[in-house]
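2024-03-11 09:14:02 INFO queue: dequeued item HTH-type transcriptional regulator TtuA, len=279
2024-03-11 09:14:02 INFO validating residues
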Amino acid sequence: MNWDDYRTFLAVAQAGSFSAAARTLHVDHTTVARRISTLEQDLGVKLVERLAREVKLTPVGKRLAALGTPVEEAMASVERAAHGAGNSLAGVVHISAPPSLATMALAPRLLALRQRYPDIDIRLTGEKDFANLNKGEADIALRLSRPNTPGLIARKLRDIPFFFFANHTYQVLEDHWEFITYHEEYNSMPQQTWLLAQLGARRVVLRSSDAQAQAQAAASGLGVALLPDYLGDGDPRLKKLTSALTPPPRELWMLVHDDIRRAPRVRAVMDFLISTLAR
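2024-03-11 09:14:37 INFO prediction written
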């Protein structure tokens, strides 16, 4: 049995579909399907029932998935120990961050890191879900909340203020603003929860799952978007609107697993992120 095939099966068991597992593993859908088929052939049992939009574990699949959790944790621990054992300022460091933060606040600053540490290569992933640092899905994670996950070291970098932004030509009284917000499935996000409580009878003209799409729509003149400073300030077409309301800030946290935080290349990138993003 190939360990990578089995790890793929565990990802499918946790994610509930081939496509979701593929996103977690950073591979394509066909690779996941192929590895599951290979594992089933090697073991001589059927592990999953393939449905239209999801997969369902067979009874044998459920038993093998339960047995695999401690094995996966042990393998992840070995991989972290090996990853953190290097003593050079060279190699790959994987950073996971919210998409708009990765695009607007981090990517434009990476040249300075490259100039300082030319032998460190960065892998930057913009993702809304939390990368599992215990499983090595990233080395460093930037998040707008602090997960309470054992084994992780967390450092608060700063408070990120939110403001109302609209196109420079937007001349509508606050009581009549029309808003651009997130989809309903994001209503539990702190800034979305707060905004919905303030809307009253005012209209939502666009709902989008992507903060950058919201910013682009606001810049076009469609309406008012509640955006973090790094996203709204970066677009010259947008202006901050004066409001009687004060949106609450979000906390920006940097997370790293204790097993790898002392690796020189990881420490160097952490120090860079602190100097660049903390204020």
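2024-03-11 09:14:37 INFO annotate: Residues 3-83 form a domain with the Arc Repressor Mutant, subunit A fold (CATH 1.10.10.10).
2024-03-11 09:14:38 INFO item closed
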